[in-house]
Amino acid sequence: MTDFLPWQQTPARRWLATRERFAHAWLIHGRPGCGQMEFALAGAASLLCESPRDGLACGECQACRWVKAGNHPDLRRIRPDAQAVREGALDVAEDAKKQPSREIRIEQIRSLLPWFNTATHRGGWRVALLYPAEALNTIAANALLKILEEPPEHTVFLLSAQAPDRLLPTLVSRCRRLPLAVPPVAESLAWLEAQGVKDAAARLAAAGDAPLLAREQAQEGRPVMPAWLDLFLDQAGRDGDGAALADALQAGQPADWVDDFQRLWLDLSLGAHGLPPRYHPAQAARIATVAQALDPAALARTADWLRDQRRLAHHPLNPKLLADHAARTLLQSVRPVRADPKGRA
């Protein structure tokens, strides 16, 4: 990929206009699903391009063709093996019990050292692209920090991150930060429709205005309102053991449904104050019905509980026990507050 996304082109031109006095390391960060990695890769292509147009990669020169083919000698992409597998750049391990690493390891950082000691292929920049940067384990992050303390000549490091607060502060201090804003809704909708995404407005809202996330969910065939949220809204405020909701949660990934419920919880909080939902405007009536009967204290406690579950989402917990507990906790928190005969809540 050598092209910036439509909403990235103007900030990219401003950024690349300073390439003659470019910082040796950049931390490119923003909300998930808004294109940080795509920006970094297109930025690498523009730095390596031999015939840039208005500062951006031409897409036609030999350097751009090499970048598209993934074999430019002056570009290295450092990412976890699991990410490389998703991109089709690495085969799944033959041993099915050995899962591809989710971390950037020190061996990957050390593999760059011989590369730094060779001349650049065309006498221009050498670009090391690391993503997601928060996947650097502690040892690898410290190894990268040592390199950035005495950066090799003619080399630019582009670190793409969704959660820069998870990086070593000393590593962040060695980088110039380049925050990417959430694109305007109109531009995102136009892009999604050009990509053939149906129900673009609803999908974009459900994805928190993140267009790449909206497209990914559409390509996966995921409904705008996931099954577990639909069941939850149906069962909220009713008596029951939540068995159907637990089954739906067990069929999904904890990281997915925790994220979905955090978004719904914001919509419920807005509804409790008479405000329209942010993520599911098409479900405004159902959300308002649930929100009006909520205990604000229970709503806040469950928001804290969901935040805790997000930290545990990738831990090897028993899926059935986790789903059962989550279904009970979520439904219990939206039981209407009943006053006792003496008028106490």
What does this structure look like?
This protein has helices at residues 9-16, 36-48, 62-69, 81-86, 106-110, 113-116, 138-149, 169-173, 185-194, 200-206, 211-219, 227-235, 243-251, 254-272, 284-292, 296-312, 319-333, and strands at residues 25-29, 75-78, 126-130, 155-161, 176-179. With 345 residues, it is α/β, with parallel strands linked by helices. It folds into three domains: 6-181, P-loop containing nucleotide triphosphate hydrolases (Rossmann fold), CATH 3.40.50.300; 183-222; 225-333, Zinc Finger, Delta Prime, domain 3. The protein has a five-stranded parallel β-sheet, with helices on one face. Strand 3, helix 7 (138-149) and strand 4 (155-161) form a beta-alpha-beta unit. It is elongated and about 70 Å long. The termini are far apart.
**Beta-strand percent range:** 5-15%
Number of helices: 17
Order of helices and strands: HEHHEHHHEHEHEHHHHHHHHH
The number of distinct structural domains comes to 3
Q: Terminal Cα separation, in Å?
A: 59 Å
- Looking at the overall shape, the CATH architecture of the largest domain is 3-Layer(aba) Sandwich
Corresponding CATH superfamily of the largest domain: P-loop containing nucleotide triphosphate hydrolases
What is the C-level CATH assignment of the largest domain? Alpha Beta
